[in-house]
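Hi team,

As requested, here is the filled-out complex form for the adenosine-5'-diphosphate run. I kept the field names the same as last time so the parser does not choke. Let me know if anything looks off before we queue the next batch.

— J.
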Amino acid sequence: MNEVLVLDSLSKQFIEGDSVCRAIDSVSLTIRKKEIVCLMGPSGCGKSTVLRIISRLENADSGQVLGSDGLYSERLRSAMVFQDHGLFPWLSVRENISYGLNMKVRFSSKEQVNKKVSELLTLVRMEEFANSLPHHLSGGMKQRVAVARALAVEPEILLMDEPFSALDTFTRRELQDEVLRIRNQLNTTFFIVTHNPEEAVYLADRIVILTQRPAVVRKEIPVTFEFPRNMADPSVIALVQDVTRLVASGQ
Ligand code: ADP
Ligand code: MG
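And here is what came back:
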């Protein structure tokens, strides 16, 4: 029930000249509303490929992506946040956030766009920097703006590809807390690729671990510790170790 996204036996290979790279092989997965699911696996196993197929930047060779209506979802509204914020350097924070909105006709008037952008600026606590250019912002701030820009299109699911990997430990924790807060405030569903077991255990309701290529789902681990999670708790530490071992072994 309440499924936002169903991946049904997705497979994808890349052919370059004579060589065939089998990336993912029959990956199936269900994500429900308001869940935070973290996707992990060895480097190069196909995690980004999964996100790219969901956001239709890439086609699967077989299998399908189903939305909440149970149909192959051309209409699934997803948005992506990358490790590199991807903001337009010549646009202000406000203009970067409204960029996606202006592309959509859902907001008819300029006032509506401005109101929506102001709400998003408040959500990610960036009101003060509305008129700043990206190069005046710290890495963490840029990533907050990237999150606001992605949320502007009111996605049913927010896809994040190693979104906080480039940030220092403290900033990363701040942004992780933002994810948890936004989930509670907006009921957003998150699908987050991370290579950091601690991050996955801190954030996820469920951790999905892929094998090496061709990647299949090796294990799904529900994480039931209460939020905010105490990373010093021995059972939390034990889970971080288990996840690390499972990802590293790769089979
Ligand atoms: P991950 O995100 O898990 O590190 P990717 O999904 O980026 O892995 O890539 C999975 C595999 O597919 C890698 O071996 C990569 O080299 C290959 N690959 C990804 N995209 C392409 C492409 N456009 N053309 C050829 N090979 C690709
Ligand atoms: Mg990747």
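Two things worth flagging: Residues 14, 16, 21, 23, 41, 43-49 surround adenosine-5'-diphosphate (ligand 1) (CB under 6 Å). The domain at 3-77+156-249 is CATH 3.40.50.300 (Rossmann fold).

Thanks,
J.
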